[in-house]
Write a structure and sequence with these properties.
The protein is of the alpha+beta class and 205 residues long. It has helices at residues 16-30, 82-94, 125-130, and strands at residues 7-10, 50-54, 57-59, 64-66, 103-109, 115-118, 134-140, 142-147, 157-161, 166-169, 178-184, 197-203. A hairpin with a 4-residue loop joins strand 3 (57-59) and strand 4. The longest helix has 15 residues, at 16-30. Bound molecules: succinic acid and manganese (II) ion.
Length: 205
């Protein structure tokens, strides 16, 4: 499938071993001292994921980044692990782009998880204008990822994101609408011991 300029799909980028290690780290973080939670967004709707922000917290009420989770429990966002950052920056480089990630949004999707079409546009104007990429890593069950245009009504392509895939969107694709229409249950590699899906999106504020 032909992707637009600035979008790169690196299928099976992570080895099974790297996936296993990263999934275990994600699980530990999600159930750690600063746990993942289900954000309630502006308008009062619950998101269909469990979310944990690392490095900076994305506030689902204000759509702004902050250091403590004022929309939930006022705990500080845990730091972005240096190994996570190195992985993401390296993936951007592999895709021919430059990222100095300072935050990651880690989401867990159960079998009913999904995410409506949206733009990632809450990072700094400088980062968005420069087209600094978002790097996405998927683990566990396959997702039906939707990738559209710069307007909500533009046509979307459906891209299956499988465990170990990376997807990068920067440059002229940085503000493309995207979302997850569904999770394909029981498609995770069994050795991950994961029901559902983790997705990590790395950004540079
Ligand atoms: C996101 O857009 O924040 C998540 C995308 C995904 O789960 O693949
Ligand atoms: Mn997004």
């Amino acid at each position: 499938m032909d992707l637009p300029p600035g979008a790169v799909h690196l299928a099976s980028h992570l080895t099974p071993d790297a996936q296993r290690k990263l999934a275990a780290e994600c699980r530990a973080l999600m159930d750690g001292d600063v746990p993942a939670y289900v954000p309630v967004v502006r308008g009062g709707g619950k998101m269909h994921v469990r979310m944990l922000c690392l490095g900076r917290h994305w506030n689902g009420q204000t759509y702004r980044y902050e250091s403590v989770r004022t929309d939930f429990d006022s705990l500080p966002a845990p730091p972005l692990p240096s190994s996570f950052k190195a992985l993401a920056d390296g993936i951007a480089r592999t895709a021919g782009m430059t990222l100095d990630a300072d935050l990651c949004i880690l989401n867990y999707y159960d079998a009913d998880g999904r995410m409506g079409l949206h733009q990632d546009k809450d990072e700094s104007p400088g980062s968005l204008e420069a087209g600094v990429p978002v790097v996405s890593i998927s683990l566990g069950d396959t997702a039906r990822f939707l990738f559209g245009g710069l307007r909500r009504k533009d046509p979307v392509m459906a891209i299956p994101l499988q465990s170990g895939d990376a997807f990068v969107f920067g440059g002229p694709s940085r503000l493309r609408y995207h979302g997850v229409s569904r999770i394909v249950p029981d498609t995770a590699p069994p050795e991950l011991g994961l029901h559902g899906r983790f997705n990590l999106t790395f950004r540079q504020f």
